[in-house]
Amino acid sequence: MKRLLSYFIIILLLSGCVQKVRTVWTDVPSAESLLSHMETLPLERNSLDTEAKVSLTVNGKYYSTQQFILVQKPEQLRSDILTGFGQLIMQVSVNRNELSAFMNDTVPGRFYHGPASPENIARFVRIPLQLKDLISFLLQTPPVIVHNSASVTVQGDMLLMTLNRDSQKQEIVFDSQLRVCTVRYFLTEDVQLQVDYDRFDSGGDFPHRVKINLPEHKLAVTVAMEEPLLNTAVSEDKFSLTAPEGALIESL
Q1: Which of 72, 156, 167, 251 could form a disulfide with 76 if both were Cys (CB 3.0 to 4.6 A apart)?
Q2: How are beta strands 158-165 and 76-82 bridged, if at all?
């Protein structure tokens, strides 16, 4: 028994010394082929339905909620936000040009309805991005800037594609399976927006965690998804809210 145990310990020690196989890029894809790959992603993904833990840090303050998130391209969103105890505290719905929100943190609750302007959306979603861009980031189909030069370099296991136009720059990092892992948008040399993707399911192409960082706004949000569903059939009524009985109704 002692000898078997010794063998087992040796095997564990040896397995711990095994190095991860590194990708050797013998044939580096061109910028044209990577851009073509990027163009196909939006065609493959048009909706997302998931439960998620959403963590928000703004001006050094940290908030965390559990949410049921439903998005559909180009501009439809529904989020049901719960406390840690499973109590509904807010519902937000954007159906193209209309926004509705129910705040359940007071008695009676308050129901808001009005145009889906960027200001109104940011008031409830708390992320100062165009809705179509936010949806694209959640679907891992980041917008590509208009550019006049493009280059690809190898960085360890990763590929870095850099796009430039005047004072604008975009960097897109791909892993060995050509999955988008990071995208950064620059103005001059300052990062305006960075989005990171990780926790890919076993062998899958879709990340279970998305991190959005807006340095100038001192804002960072992490969406950790549980069993995300892509391209499910979504009925229009999912993106419409009705004021609950007794709620105070206010126009935006």
Answers
A1: 72
A2: unpaired
Integer Cα distance of 106 and 68 in angstroms = 21
What is the rounded distance in angstroms from the CA atom of residue 126 to the CA atom of residue 241? Answer: 19
Torsion of CA 168, 41, 132, 139, to 10 degrees: -110
Contact yes or no for 171/160 (Cβ under 8 A): yes
The pLDDT averaged over each successive group of 10 residues in the chain (252 residues) is 50 48 75 94 91 94 94 95 87 95 93 95 92 96 95 94 96 95 95 96 87 96 96 91 93 92
* Of 21, 19, 22, residue with least CA distance to 154: 22
Measure the CA angle with vertex 68, ends 201 and 112; round to 5°.
Answer: 150
What are phi and psi for residue 123, nearest 5 degrees?
-60, -35
Cα atoms in the 13 Å half-sphere on the side-chain side of 249: 8
CB contact at 8 A, 80 and 65: no
Contact in structure between 137 and 210 (CB atoms under 8 Å): yes
Residue 122 sits at the vertex; the CA angle it makes with 121 and 128, to the nearest 5 degrees, is: 125
Give the Cα separation of 46 and 48 in Å (integer). Answer: 7
Q: Nearest 5°: phi and psi at 141? A: -125, 65
